[in-house]
Design a protein that fits this description.
By secondary structure, the chain is of the alpha/beta class. 50% of the residues lie in helices and 14% in strands. It folds into two domains: 103 residues; 192 residues, no CATH class. It contains 13 helices and eight strands. Strands 3, 4, 5, 6, 7 and 8 form a six-stranded mixed beta sheet that branches.
Amino acid sequence: MAQVRTIPAPVLKELSGVSVEQFARLVDEIGQAWETARFERLERPGRQRVQGAGRKHAIPFAARLLMVLMYLRWNISYRALGGLFGVSKDAVLRSMNELLPLLAARGITAPDGTVIADTAALEAQLATLTDAQRAALVDGTFVPVGRPRDWDVQKPLYNHHRGRHTRNFTALTDDEGRLLWVGGTGVGSLHDLTAVATSTAASPLAESKVTVLADKAYRGIAKRLKLAGAFTPKPRRRKDRPAPSEGLAAAEKDFNREIAKQRVKVEHAIRRLKVRRVLHGYRLHARRFDDVVAAVAGLTTMPA
């Protein structure tokens, strides 16, 4: 931590995406969780090595945490990060493997300061919206990935709507665009409605009786998830159907315009997530994607 303190506050913010105060809290929180996990690993039954054996970290914990935050913020290669910190790319990988799951497990901080780390906490937040006669906003987004070599892996990742290979995730906010949940991760070919219907948010959305606003990709969400209510844009009328009256057409346009005006706030929440450039081009193993999305969400909603 002593070396990190020499970094000017604006530079630390630019490098990691967190302020000095936030970084100090992360060092304390993640450091304690890391020590606990390390102790459990060293004391596990059947361990062959004696205490103290094995490879040692070349740099202190605060610097390793900064490396992980810099990766999430700027999507820098492991080799480049290792060169900046004077360690090998394998040391960077080791830090990512140890600290990324701990950052992901922190959870999202709700507008009232509650940490949403499980479905019960999410359901409580959504129930509060229901009691206040407010709505929840849902939207999906994509993260580009490289094209895999094998066709069997390549095909599920291909997103026909975007014309590229992607991984997707879903964001859920309140009606003011404040993030409550991220998840519903999947391959690019997974439909947005299926993603949320098979996610951990499906049950809290139904049980809380909250009204949902979403775009046209979520038509049928109320029936699929058994929601109390949902609003999506009115579809365009087919050419072989009778043309609507002028008044009805105008009313439908006004309705769609109002839906768009309300749900744009969830798009702003996704934009805030994508300030961290790891979500501009995902290059890690597929098994890390959930942790990356959860870690970014937790850092984005971290109190100042």
